[in-house]
Amino acid sequence: MRRAGSPLLSRTNRALAWSAAVALIALAVVAALPLAAQTPAQQSSADGYRVSIHVLTWDGSDPDLEPVPDAGAAFKLNPNRWSPSAMPVRVWLNPAGGPSALPIEDLVRGAIGQWSSIEGSAFRFEYAGTTTADAGACNFTNRQLDGRNTVTFTTSLPSTTLGVTCSVWSGSGNLREFDIQLNASVNWGPSGSLGPGQFDLASTILHELGHGAGLGHPCESANRCTDDERQAVMYPSLKPREERNVLQADDRAAMVEAYPAPGGQSAGFRLVLPVVSRD
What global pTM score does this model have? Predict the structure, then answer.
């Protein structure tokens, strides 16, 4: 999860660590309640599938952004991946409720293109077009799996949550489906000309699709992150007016490690999350 640097975070972390059901939390913003009370981290049912939630957060600040020097990094791979037979992983978009002033479909296409063109990685997304389908994988009271990986907008998320990804995986460990919910109430802005208090939708979509591919966050907290990790798209927080809409070396290395192309070489380092873990 992307952290907001407040006392609430320590309570949230303790709640998450306490819960053995927490599996891959990644894109949200800290709100009035601990995250564990906002959304269940993992659900299972008689159908044999399990669902994990990824939450993206912001840290509440809007400073002048300064470049940071390069340094070593250690990405994280979640334990659940797409099987080779699932390639390309198709992605749909339900634009209802999204910001009409932004080219949402182009942003989704662009993010798909970045994750699908990493040298040395066999992973591929494919844009499948628009749909009216909802994010059924995120409905924990009446989960509806429709075989579609859908990017949607909703007003039901906490006010400080940018977006969540709900990943469905089977007992074999293979990912089966994911749905993304983006907060329709967030003040989204265009890359390159973000105003005060605006968040970059392109960065959020790119980050969430990384979770859909099976990536975790590169570091647990800001004081444990290297400079390369802070630059990565999969870094667990996003500031207002900050742009993380281009994959960095850490993001690309993770995909090469998770989905090496035939004849490719491993990046040489990896930190793999256990089956039940905090992300």
Answer: 0.76
